[in-house]
Amino acid sequence: MTDQSGQGRIPPVPPAPMPPAPFAPAPVPGQFGQVPPQPQYGQMAGPQSGYYTAPGYVMTPMVYADSGPKGLSITSMVLGIVGFIASIFGVGVLLIPQILAVIFGHIALKKEPGGRGMAITGLVLGYIGLAIGLVLLAILIIVAVIGAAAISTYR
Predict the structure, then answer these.
(1) Which of 32, 116, 146, 149 is the most exposed place for a label (fewest CB within 10 A)?
(2) Separation of alpha carbons 97 and 76, rounded Å
(3) Are 103 and 127 in contact (CB under 8 A)?
(4) HSE-up of 142 (CA within 13 Å, CB side)?
């Protein structure tokens, strides 16, 4: 084979350039000029906890504050849901779950700060169910009185 100049030899292909070295942080001298050991890929720089992190990142353990029992808050929320659903279906005339939801909700707000959201949910649903139940009870009483008056006029 000949090249374009007619000399008969084709010059060799130059080798491919070497890829750049991966990014490595500059060594930080430790005590007496020593470089601290770098963690291996996939290992934590701090204490081992069984979780994988990127090199150089330390994973701090999560600490949860003990907020105490939330029994009153859960009770208030459950009774509020039951009372609200019972009121929607017309069974809420009895008003027992709604009243208990309101009572437990107010007690839970004072005694259980960790269950505040559930206590407020129980209070709101308890009060709404109580209002619906009272309206249904008033309608039932009015219908009963009108029905009794209508029956007494036929005799």
Answers:
(1) 32
(2) 9
(3) no
(4) 6
Residue length of the chain: 155
Task: Read off the tokens for 63.
Answer: 């600490």
- Low-confidence stretches of the chain (pLDDT < 70) are 1-7, 20-59, 63-67, 154-155
Distance CA 45, CA 61 (A): 13
Q: Quick: pLDDT tens for 7-33.
A: 677 778 888 777 766 665 555 555 556
81 phi-psi bin (left φ>0, alpha ψ -120 to 50, beta other): alpha
